[in-house]
Hints:
Number of domains: 2
Number of strands: 10
Largest sheet: 10 strands, mixed
Oligomer: single chain
Shape: globular
CATH architecture of the largest domain: 3-Layer(aba) Sandwich
Helix content: 40-55%
Structural class: alpha/beta
Amino acid sequence: MRMTIRMGLAALAAGLLGLGAAAQAAELKMMTGPQGGSWYPLGGAVAEIAKRELKGVNITVQLGAGISNVKGVEAGKADLGLGNSVSTADAVVGRKPFDKKTQNVRHVATLYLQYFQPIVLDKGADTIRTPAQLKGKRMTTQAVGNTGEQMARHFLATAGLAYKDLAKVSHGSYNDSVALMRDGHADAFMLVSTVPAPAVMDLATGRKVVLMSLDDATYQKLLKLNAGYARRNIPAGTYKGQDKDVSAFGTYTHLIASGKLSNDLVYQLTKAIAKNLASINAVVPATKGLTPKEMGSDVGVPLHAGAARFYKEIGAKN
Length: 318
């Protein structure tokens, strides 16, 4: 009788352990960015960290873009995603290009700043220097759904311009844009990326280009369009032929998650990323110097309760 009871208790304990393991196991989808950018390998690094540190958790990395990733997480098409803080903040309050306020999107970790980079052909005295001078010109930028494309429209808007005021606007991959610029079929290439951006480095090796600089008046107009923009300099020598610092602006790349993901799972994932920042640094050098406390920086997006638990434990201020 006692043996039967002991066997029953052992079976019950094994069952409970099995339930615990099942609860921890998870198949997650993560939306990142286009191939050739920094987001896709960054997503791969997060997936590898999860596989190594979290038993039973598997993350499938998918292509994506800043705006479409937020929409995907909100709609339940993905569990995790990479976003740009300015466009995610737009989603939280329901500003265009979003149709309504998000309910499910939560901030997990601030990672690094990406720079908006308006590149133009070097034409000597006729080189485009200001947003107003883009009128009637040909521009190439990222596809609709990318934060870089939204930022390009904001950049034009500071001069009262829209796409209809340009001779032609092309939307495509970084490689497509580089080819258009190199062949002289576009006058300006606009993207948001880390610096140096491989696509711009590639372009600068075969064509003389100039990185447009941002003046104070233009930056103030940008802030009226979205208060989340941050101003930074791109150091001299970043690109071939760039002999001085260039004033630029950008947005923070951050990790987002569905509010429906369990607090414990997001806590464990946030902790694992903080523990393995060297793996993140290896694929995105712009993250070097990032600390676990800085990961908890407020970007104007509601923080996931699981991530909040981790940042509270380490004394980070959100």
